[in-house]
Amino acid sequence: xxxxxxxxxxxxxxxxxxxxxxxxxxxxxxxxxxxxxxxxxxxxxxxxxxxxxxxxxxxxxxxxxxxxxxxxxxxxxxxxxxxxxxxxxxxxxxxxxxxxxxxxxxxxxxxxxxxxxxxxxxxxxxxxxxxxxxxxxxxxxxxxxxxxxxxxxxxxxxxx
Amino acid sequence: xxxxxxxxxxxxxxxxxxxxxxxxxxxxxxxxxxxxxxxxxxxxxxxxxxxxxxxxxxxxxxxxxxxxxxxxxxxxxxxxxxxxxxxxxxxxxxxxxxxxxxxxxxxxxxxxxxxxxxxxxxxxxxxxxxxxxxxxxxxxxxxxxxxxxxxxxxxxxxxxxxxxxxxxxxxxxxxxxxxxxxxxxxxxxxxxxxxxxxxxxxxxxxxxxxxxxxxxxxxxxxxxxxxxxxxxxxxxxxxxxxxxxxxxxxxxxxxxxxxxxxxxxxxxxxxxxxxxxxxxxxxxxxxxxxxxxxxxxxxxxxxxxxxxxxxxxxxxxxxxxxxxxxxxxxxxxxxxxxxxxxxxxxxxxxxxxxxxxxxxxxxxxxxxxxxxxxxxxxxxxxxxxxxxxxxxxxxxxxxxxxxxxxxxxxxxxxxxxxxxxxxxxxxxxxxxxxxxxxxxxxxxxxxxxxxxxxxxxxxxxxxxxxxxxxxxxxxxxxxxxxxxxxxxxxxxxxxxxxxxxxxxxxxxxxxxxxxxxxxxxxxxxxxxxxxxxxxxxxxxxxxxxxxxxxxxxxxxxxxxxxxxxxxxxxxxxxxxxxxxxxxxxxxxxxxxxxxxxxxxxxxxxxxxxxxxxxxxxxxxxxxxxxxxxxxxxxxxxxxxxxxxxxxxxxxxxxxxxxxxxxxxxxxxxxxxxxxxxxxxxxxxxxxxxxxxxxxxxxxxxxxxxxxxxxxxxxxxxxxxxxxxxxxxxxxxxxxxxxxxxx
Lengths: 160, 742
Description:
The structure holds two protein chains of two kinds.
Chain A (H helix, E strand, L loop, with lengths): L2 E8 L2 E8 L4 H8 L18 E4 L2 E4 L12 E3 L12 H8 L9 H14 L5 H7 L11 H18 L1
Helix pairs in contact in A: 2-5
Chain B lengths: L19 H6 L14 E7 L5 E7 L1 H5 L3 E5 L12 H7 L4 E2 L5 E7 L2 H9 L2 E6 L6 H4 L24 E9 L2 H6 L3 E9 L11 E6 L5 E5 L4 H12 L6 E5 L15 H11 L3 E4 L2 H7 L5 E10 L5 E11 L9 H4 L11 E8 L14 H19 L3 H8 L18 H10 L1 H4 L6 E10 L4 E9 L5 E5 L7 H13 L6 E5 L16 H28 L6 E4 L2 E4 L10 E2 H8 L7 E8 L5 E11 L6 E11 L6 H20 L30 E6 L21 H13 L10 H9 L2
Parallel strand pairs in B: 1-12, 10-11, 14-15, 18-19, 25-26
Antiparallel strand pairs in B: 1-5, 2-4, 2-6, 3-5, 7-15, 8-13, 9-10, 9-12, 13-14, 16-24, 17-18, 17-23, 20-21, 21-22, 24-25
C-alpha cells in the first residue's frame, strides 16, 4: 500500500503524517496519532461516534480519507477544552448527567459545538434533528438535549 | 433508624461522577483504545451460510502471506472444560456452522490491512445444509433440525427436535378461572429479535507468555466472567489469566459473555505476540447479541368489575443455535404485576440457525409483558373499563403470592400506579389519530457474587476497590454510599474498578445488581473499617469498645470518662493508624441476598398517520420504584434509556433474515435504533418504597424500564388507529395493513 505525506492542522497545531491512501481520517487519528478520543461505532457513517470538524464542517471521520485533511483544519474532542478549562458544553454535559457509558459523548459534543457555532439559539427540535446522526443507546437523548439547550443558553449569556 | 426516616447527607444528591471529565474530554480508554508494543491485529473469517457442514479448511495461502503470524481454526482449541462446550463452539465453529456469521477461522497479522487480506485467502469447503430461522417454522415436526438429541424430557410431543426445553409456572386452576370470567380474550403475539445495540463494538487485546499465563484488556460488563469463560474454553486455570476491564461503551447484557476473547487468546498463544481484535458493526450484528424472537399464545379472563379471573400464556422463544433458559424469564414475570388466583405460564425454548442469543436488559421479560399487557388492555376496551383502575384493582402487593411462586415482600407497584394516575400526563387531552397506552412491568432484580475492599489511605482519603465495570455512574453511587456510611465528604472517596488479579470474583454488571449488591458490600466494608477504628481507639484510650461510637465522620468516646478524649476524625485516625497496629481496611465477600423486586408503570402517547401507518411518540412518562435513589440523575437515566430501547423494539428494530437464512440488515442504517429526532423528552417519576434488604433501601433500577414500553406503545398505537397490534415491530407497512383490514 502506497503512503501519502499529509500536512494538516489538528486542534490548532500543525501536524504531519504519512498514511496509506486508503486509510480513513478516523484510522489516522486513532491508530497513527494516538488520538483515541474520537470513537468508531460503525465505520459506515451511521452512528456519528467519530464526528470531527473539517474546516468547520461536521463530518464522520470514518467517511473522510486521511489524505483529504491535507492543508485543512481538523478539530476533535481532544481540542475542545481550553487547556484546563472545560468547554461550556462539556460542563453542561456533566451537570446534566448527559452521558452514561460515554462512548458516543465525544461525537455528540463535537456535533453540538458545530450546531451552536451556526445557531446559538436552537429550539429543542433543531437540536434533535441536528443530533439525529449521533446515536446514543444509553440515555434516550433526554438529558443530552437538555444539556445542549442549557449550554446554548449559558454561551449566549457569556456573549451578552 | 429505618431507611425511610433516615436523613442522608450525601445520598440523594446529584453529584458528578468521577469518570465524567475523562469521558467528555476523550481521555477515557475503551476497549479499542489501547495498544501494546509489537501488537498484532486479529480478524475472524465468518460463515456466509446459515447452516453448513465444514468439509475442509485450507489455510496455507493465508499462512504464506507476508505479515501473517498465526492462523487458527477449531483444531487449535483444546477440549474445553465441562460446561463450556457451547461457548467454545459459538466462538469457533467445529464441524458445522450453525448461523450466518459463525466464526470459522482467524488470523493475526502485523496490520489490520494484512489481516483482512489474509482471511480472504482461507479456503473453506462447505456442504450447505437445510436451515431454519423462524420460530414458527422451527417448531414444525418436519423442520430442519439444528441439533439432534437435545430435547429435554418435559418437552411435549408433536414438535420438531428444535423445541429443546419446557418449563411451567403458576398456581390455582385456570379453567375454573376462565369460567368465572365475563370476557375471555385469546390472542397470538409475535416479536422479532433485536440487538442490544451498544455503540462500542466488542474489542479485546491479550498476550500470553510461554508459561501460558495471559493478560487481557477487554470491554465487558464482567471481567471475572470473561476470565472464567476464557479459562473454560481454553482449558486454563483462572488464576493464570488476568483480565482488566476497559471503560465500556454500553453492554445492556450483550457484554456478559465471550465472543472474540478466547479467539484472541488462541491467536496470542500461537503467535507469541500481543493480539488486538476489534469487531466491525457488521460482525456485532451478525455474530453477537441478539435477543429472542417469539410467538406467544395468551388467554386472559376478566369479570365486569375488572377483576382478572385467570391468565394463561404459552411462550415459544427462539433462542438461536444453542439451548438457553431465556424463556423461563418470560414465563415467570409475564403476569407478575397482578395478584392472581389462577395463573399458568408455559415456556418452550426453540433453537434455530441464528446467533446464540445473549442477555438484553431484563432478558426474556419484554416480549411476554407485551403479550400479557396487550391482552389486559384489549379486555379493558371490550368491557369498557379504565385500564388504570383495572391495574389498581388487580395489582400485586407485599404478601401477594407471585405468578411464578414466591410471595412478594413490600414493593412499590401500587405507589407507582397511584403516581401514574395522579400524573398530568394521564389526564392530558389527546388529539386526532392519537392514542394513550398504559403498561406495568416487573423484573426480579438480583444480588449475586460480590467482593469489595475499602482502604483507609495514609492521608485519610478512602479507596474503594470493586470488580464491576461502571456503565452508568456506579462508581459515583458506590463512593456516595461509602461517604455516607463513614460520614465523610464524597470527594474524599474514590472508587476503582480493579482487575481479576486484585479481588475475589464478582458477577458482571448485570441483573440490576451493582448499586444494590456492590453498594451493600461497600457499606459493610466501611462498617468493618469503623469497627476496626473503634477497637483500636478503645485499646489506646483503655476504655470499653462499646463506649466508642462512630458519628458524623469521627470516633467519639461516650462512656463515664466523657470529656477526657477528644473526638478523632478519619484523617486524624489515619495519621496515627500505623502506631495502632498498621493499615486499616475493610472487606466484604458474599452472595448478596434481598435484592428486592422492581415494578414500573409507563404511559405512552402515540400518533398514527392514517395515510402511511407511521407512528410517532408524542409523550412518554416512566414511573418506577427505585427503593432509594442514590444519585437521582443516574436513576432517571436508566428509566429514560430503558424506555427508549423498548420504544425501538416496539416500533422499528428487527432482525431481517432472507430466504437464504442470512441476516439482511447488518448496519445501523438498516437496523435502526431510535435517534434524537424520533423522540420527545422522556418524563420520569421516581417512587421510593425502601427495599428492606439494603441498608439505604436501594432496589436495582436498570432492567425494569425496558419491560413495559413494548406494551405501552402497542396499546397506544392500537387505541390510536383502532386496530389491535399483535406483531412487533409496528413498522408503518404492518400498521397500515392492519388498518386497511376490515
